[in-house]
Fold this sequence. Notes:
alpha/beta
Amino acid sequence: MRAITRFTASQEPVVIFWFRRDLRTEDNRGLAKAAGSGHRVLPLFVFDTDILDRFDKDHPAVTVMCKSLADLDSQIRKAGSALIAFIGTTAKVIQHLVKSLNVSAVYANEDFEPEGKRVEGEVRDVLRDAGVPLHLSTDHLIFRPGKIVKDDGTPYRVYGHFRRRWLKAFESEAMSPTREMTEARWFKPVDAGITRFTPKIAGFQEANTVITDPLLNRERLLQYQNRRDYPAADGTTRAGQSLRFGTISIRKITGLASRYSKTLLDELIWREFFMNILFHFPHAESGSFKQGYSSIRWRNSEDHFMRWCEGTTGFPLVDAGMRELKETGYMHNRVRMITASFLTKNLLTDWQWGEAWFASRLSDFELSSNNGNWQWVAGTGCDAAPYFRVFSPAAQQIKFDRRGEYTSKWVPEAGSDSYPAPIIDEKQTRKAAVEAYREALSKYKGERSNSRE
Ligand SMILES: Cc1cc2nc3c(=O)[nH]c(=O)nc-3n(C[C@H](O)[C@H](O)[C@H](O)COP(=O)(O)OP(=O)(O)OC[C@H]3O[C@@H](n4cnc5c(N)ncnc54)[C@H](O)[C@@H]3O)c2cc1C
């Protein structure tokens, strides 16, 4: 464990607010509760090595996170305090602070993904031993998993049903933003050194990623439904990074969506749906949600997989998406679906290979959304696209990039001699994929009817 922010503290009583994926002071539920405690609030962030050790050293999400931390630190410094950062395991850092300062409670927002829950459990244990309470709030989602469930209390597996219940609950939910933090009394470090929140301090390299603030003006939201499917149109919100690290409040974006774009609201509900799925069905993290799909005989050609990763498959729209991902840490949603379908169906490659590649390259990587969408495309998920649905890259190009604006930006050589020939025959591979899925499913006929609601 190592302190990144150099500081000296008095023995005045404080509460700790442990920042996690909620890197903002505005409309932050847990932070507002900490501020309401009456004690000074010590703002803490831990570069948790147990989590970070799993990330590639040039992961774009780490670059985004560090930029968000620098912004948060400057907001807090304006109020005369400083974001106190450590590197190590979170439980050990909190244990150390509780021993060396006069801490009366720890506040945080809950994380619903498996790794976050594990870290939370360790923190809870050390605080229990120290006799210090841990107060958790729900901030990252509108509704905590477990709230939107069927009448008998069991979780939904079908998005449409989840959505209906979610919308009903949302009508009665008080969406008022949490009291702003201007009134909070922050912890005053006696002498806090400047912290440069760069990937380097956590042993990472700066990634070549595009960092985008969410684009939420009224016109864009009103046009969202018409423009969101066209990768060249720049018609989406680019809110993924901000939602991942909580630099925007979910209540703020959901409130705007409910006013100006029901289609965007549906997408935000998908995000909550997938987080609920992983929360209630943790087995989906490491395998098919529907067990019956576990026995698909993937072809898993390493050569084809590398060509897909590099964007040299000879299918311009697929290659454009994969190159965009590699160069910017972002890929448009429609193209994510097309590239994922191409990998799992046409190349008959295990969806978990693709999931892992996206996880290592996306600047908005979120386990539940990535896993849920990959399983949706591969047909292995809870409420997935039917297995025989195979996107045709050529047909998708005509529909969504007719003039080739998107494709030619990323694959300027398409159509020339220097561009590779297609690595597979689209029709043949589509047929082979449907057969491979059918064969696996015929072994597990019963499973499909059991999973229906
Ligand atoms: C194979 C695949 C992998 C994906 N991996 C991720 C991931 O790791 N992280 C991630 O945030 N999204 C993921 N998505 C969903 C979606 O592609 C991105 O959220 C979206 O492209 C981000 O750009 P945006 O903010 O401009 O989207 P917008 O269309 O403006 O959407 C606004 C927000 O709604 C949510 N959202 C939109 N579409 C979806 C969706 N299909 N599922 C869940 N939430 C959605 C996101 O939080 C998004 O930021 C994946 C989709 C696919 C097909």
